[in-house]
Amino acid sequence: MAAGSQSQTFNEIMQSIRKKSLAPVYILHGEESYFIDRLAEAFESLVPEQERDFNFYALYAPEITPEVVNATCMRFPMMSDRQVVILKEAQAVRADIINKLHTYCSRPNLSTVLVICFRGDKAKGKDLIAAAKKNGGVFFESKRLTERNIDPVIENLAHQKKLNIESKGIAMLRDFVGLDVAKLYNEIDKLAFVLGEGQMITPEAIERNVGISKDYNNFELVDAIAAKDSAKIFRIINYFRNNPKNNPTVMTVSAVFNYFSGLLAAQFSKDKSPSGLLEATGCKWQSQLNKFTTGMRNYNAYKTIEIISAIRDFDVKNKGMGSRMNDYDLLHDLMFRIITCPDKIDI
Q: Are 188 and 226 in contact (CB under 8 A)?
């Protein structure tokens, strides 16, 4: 690889591993450790099992000196084109210690792939980072997942298993699992085993194999709220009350808040075209706009602002301030306030 560093995505690095088109140094860092662990496993798989005793080294930064790491990396592989050295837990040592690896990274051994893992933290060591950047190193930052960026991750995990997934299926998994990527991977792995390659992950498949109701979930609740279908809203809320383990109110209210935040952005967007609304709401697919276009017919901006205020009021009361109602009673009350919200606010 030519001199000069680059940042790469998880998929780009995985692809380069499959093609065995490798950089001499990889620095993996960031708050979400799941993707760092998966990449480390992929780098380890580059070395066949029968060669791992002499062409693969898993070193732990708190237990070893930079000088030993440098010396290990300068060795030549035995009966192979490359050796792989993975330095784990680099975040656990001081910056001045890890920085000593800059000597090696300034003139890396091209038959060694050095992978430095900073799990849950930013890369450190000013000279190390500069040397890696100057000499063909690749950087990957595994950013913390949020509710706004989890959907592409779920879709990508499905594609890794050679599956497709419906948008409603993404919403169901997001609401059920949350931001736990390891658990998401396990659920999708289970679906891949049951469905087989090339199949579609549908709400029905998730209901059968993961245990989430396709009719009673936060995705359906938001659609019912958008349509102002009070009968369906309270049917879902009653189901949640009777199945609290899989339907915590904090996840439900978060989904409702995100919807009305997006609706407000759509209402104040100057560009009401589909492309303008996609940008305003952060939606990826045209079909996801349906709940916003429906909501814009049933709620004006006055109502949306009032509802967001009601959601904040729910959050305060749910924390025990100013109310002794249980969380599902509070949720029922919030739904009633959404349905009966006035058209105009008196100022």
A: no
